[in-house]
Design goal:
There is one protein chain. This protein is of the alpha+beta class and 101 residues long. It has one domain. The chain is built from 1 helix and 3 strands, in the order αβββ. The longest helix has 53 residues. The model has no long low-confidence stretch (mean pLDDT 80).
């Protein structure tokens, strides 16, 4: 009976160690994935705010890319890949910010 109890306790301990290791690995990947999605969402929100304030880029002059984001946006209709690029345009010595959707 003692061998049975000892084997049972060793099995429980080994299972706990394996599960703990898997939980640590899953936690790290979830953290990195959440951080990446948060950065993308923040960039999309910033681009939308800039777009409301300054409008779209209409191809009027050369531009310099300030921020470019590509990400997956999940909505009720499914997953959509969305791209936003925030650019700086200099016209007559005045720099403005625009969004290329």
């Amino acid at each position: 009976m003692a061998k049975f109890i000892l084997g049972f306790c060793v099995g429980i301990a080994m299972s706990g160690i394996c599960i703990f290791g898997l939980l640590i690995a899953k936690g790290r990947t979830s953290f990195v994935e959440g951080r990446t999605k948060g950065i993308a969402v923040g960039r999309f929100e910033a681009a939308e705010a800039i777009e409301k304030e300054f409008g779209h880029y209409k191809g009027e002059s050369a531009y310099q890319v300030l921020l470019s984001t590509t990400g997956r946006v999940t909505s009720y209709s499914g997953t959509v890949i969305k791209t936003n690029t925030v650019v700086c345009i200099e016209t007559n010595g005045v720099k403005t910010v625009r969004v290329i959707p």
